[in-house]
Amino acid sequence: MPTKTWKNRERDIARWFGTDRTPLSGGNSRHTRSDSLHDMLFIEAKHCKRDARVELFKKTKPLALDEDKIPLLAISQHGEPGFFIFCHSSDLLAIANQRAKVLRNGG
Known about the structure:
Blueprint: H1 5-16, H2 52-66, E1 73-75, E2 84-86, H3 92-104
Protein backbone atom coordinates (compact mmCIF):
# COMPACT_ATOMS: atom_id res chain seq x y z
CA MET A 1 0.00 0.00 0.00
CA PRO A 2 1.57 3.33 -1.04
CA THR A 3 2.23 5.90 1.64
CA LYS A 4 -0.29 8.71 1.41
CA THR A 5 0.72 12.36 1.26
CA TRP A 6 -1.41 13.25 4.29
CA LYS A 7 0.38 10.61 6.37
CA ASN A 8 3.71 12.13 5.38
CA ARG A 9 2.46 15.58 6.39
CA GLU A 10 1.30 14.20 9.76
CA ARG A 11 4.80 12.73 10.25
CA ASP A 12 6.46 16.03 9.27
CA ILE A 13 4.23 18.02 11.63
CA ALA A 14 4.77 15.60 14.51
CA ARG A 15 8.56 15.73 13.96
CA TRP A 16 8.44 19.55 13.93
CA PHE A 17 7.04 19.34 17.47
CA GLY A 18 9.58 16.70 18.53
CA THR A 19 7.28 13.70 18.55
CA ASP A 20 5.93 10.94 16.32
CA ARG A 21 2.77 10.48 14.31
CA THR A 22 0.16 8.38 16.06
CA PRO A 23 0.00 4.99 14.37
CA LEU A 24 -3.48 4.47 12.94
CA SER A 25 -4.12 8.08 13.93
CA GLY A 26 -7.62 8.94 14.97
CA GLY A 27 -9.95 6.78 17.03
CA ASN A 28 -8.39 3.50 15.86
CA SER A 29 -5.01 4.04 17.54
CA ARG A 30 -6.08 3.31 21.13
CA HIS A 31 -3.26 5.70 22.17
CA THR A 32 -4.92 9.05 21.61
CA ARG A 33 -7.27 10.70 19.16
CA SER A 34 -4.54 13.25 18.42
CA ASP A 35 -2.55 12.89 15.19
CA SER A 36 0.66 12.87 17.25
CA LEU A 37 2.01 11.22 20.37
CA HIS A 38 3.03 14.55 21.91
CA ASP A 39 2.62 14.53 25.69
CA MET A 40 1.34 18.11 25.89
CA LEU A 41 -0.09 19.11 22.50
CA PHE A 42 -3.19 17.63 20.89
CA ILE A 43 -2.37 18.06 17.21
CA GLU A 44 -5.05 17.74 14.55
CA ALA A 45 -3.27 17.82 11.19
CA LYS A 46 -5.21 18.52 8.00
CA HIS A 47 -3.83 18.37 4.47
CA CYS A 48 -6.01 19.94 1.80
CA LYS A 49 -5.80 21.44 -1.67
CA ARG A 50 -7.31 24.80 -0.66
CA ASP A 51 -8.20 26.49 2.58
CA ALA A 52 -9.70 29.98 2.95
CA ARG A 53 -7.27 30.88 5.75
CA VAL A 54 -4.27 29.90 3.65
CA GLU A 55 -5.59 31.93 0.72
CA LEU A 56 -6.09 34.96 2.98
CA PHE A 57 -2.60 34.45 4.41
CA LYS A 58 -1.14 34.37 0.89
CA LYS A 59 -2.79 37.74 0.18
CA THR A 60 -1.62 39.18 3.50
CA LYS A 61 1.99 38.01 3.27
CA PRO A 62 3.22 40.40 0.52
CA LEU A 63 1.57 43.33 2.32
CA ALA A 64 3.40 42.41 5.52
CA LEU A 65 6.71 41.88 3.74
CA ASP A 66 6.40 45.27 2.01
CA GLU A 67 6.46 46.75 5.53
CA ASP A 68 9.20 44.34 6.72
CA LYS A 69 6.76 42.69 9.14
CA ILE A 70 5.74 39.12 9.97
CA PRO A 71 2.39 38.07 8.48
CA LEU A 72 -0.16 36.81 11.01
CA LEU A 73 -3.92 36.30 10.86
CA ALA A 74 -5.88 36.86 14.07
CA ILE A 75 -9.31 35.29 13.64
CA SER A 76 -12.06 35.93 16.16
CA GLN A 77 -15.62 34.73 16.23
CA HIS A 78 -18.60 36.83 17.26
CA GLY A 79 -19.64 36.16 20.84
CA GLU A 80 -16.52 34.11 21.64
CA PRO A 81 -13.66 35.33 23.84
CA GLY A 82 -10.11 35.42 22.55
CA PHE A 83 -8.94 34.74 19.03
CA PHE A 84 -7.08 32.20 16.94
CA ILE A 85 -3.64 32.93 15.55
CA PHE A 86 -2.80 31.66 12.08
CA CYS A 87 0.80 31.95 10.96
CA HIS A 88 3.43 30.01 9.06
CA SER A 89 5.49 27.56 11.12
CA SER A 90 8.69 29.42 10.18
CA ASP A 91 7.34 32.56 11.91
CA LEU A 92 6.05 30.94 15.10
CA LEU A 93 9.12 31.54 17.26
CA ALA A 94 9.39 35.21 16.26
CA ILE A 95 5.69 35.71 17.02
CA ALA A 96 6.01 33.95 20.39
CA ASN A 97 9.01 36.15 21.19
CA GLN A 98 6.99 39.29 20.42
CA ARG A 99 4.22 38.11 22.76
CA ALA A 100 6.75 37.31 25.50
CA LYS A 101 8.16 40.84 25.14
CA VAL A 102 4.68 42.32 25.65
CA LEU A 103 4.15 40.15 28.73
CA ARG A 104 7.54 41.15 30.20
CA ASN A 105 6.51 44.80 29.80
CA GLY A 106 3.29 44.21 31.76
CA GLY A 107 0.88 43.82 28.84
